[in-house]
Amino acid sequence: GMGRTGKWFAHQWAGIKPDVMPLAKGLGSGVPIGAVVAGPKAANIFQPGNHGTTFGGNPLAMRAGVETIRIMEEEGLLDNAAKVGAHLKAALQKALAGNPGVKDVRGQGLMIGIELARPCGVLAQRALDAGLLLSVTADSVVRLVPPLILTEAEADEMVGILVPLIEAFLKE
Asked: Which residues contact 75 (CB under 8 A, 6 or more apart)?
């Protein structure tokens, strides 16, 4: 959610409308916040007093949410996520093409996964040592979720750091 994939919410790429959608981290730009968006089928399920919340209604958290949305709109961060994400994904696909140890490079916007043929948890520390923060999920997927303000030049720098690390790891 919150623009990571190049649309406000990932479900929009599939053309579906969820009944309930939780929002949190990205909504507050670092300020703890939580929200629930409910469509017509679920909107009347929660009534006042049914559910408590730590951050609900907190003026600071609510202002952070409003400002996050305003800044994302004014700075075109959804378009940037879509454009730079497509550039990053294409660059990774090109650089890793034909490597039998790479099963897939997938994702949408600035949420990209590189699935390798074997567990690759050691790449998280190796990338960190090289100045790149990433995570490994499901034992064999390098997960990239860079900030929505990422530029194409920074995406190219990521590729320049990451691809040699993956190639060296796969040769081990």
From this structure: 149
What pLDDT digit, counting tens, does each position of 110-149 carry?
A: 999 999 999 999 999 999 999 999 999 999 999 999 999 9
Strand order of the sheet with strand 111-116? 102-108, 111-116, 141-144, 135-137
Query: Topology of domain 77-171, per CATH?
Result: Aspartate Aminotransferase, domain 1 (3.90.1150)
pTM (2 d.p.): 0.89
Domain parsing of the chain, residue ranges:
11-74, 77-171
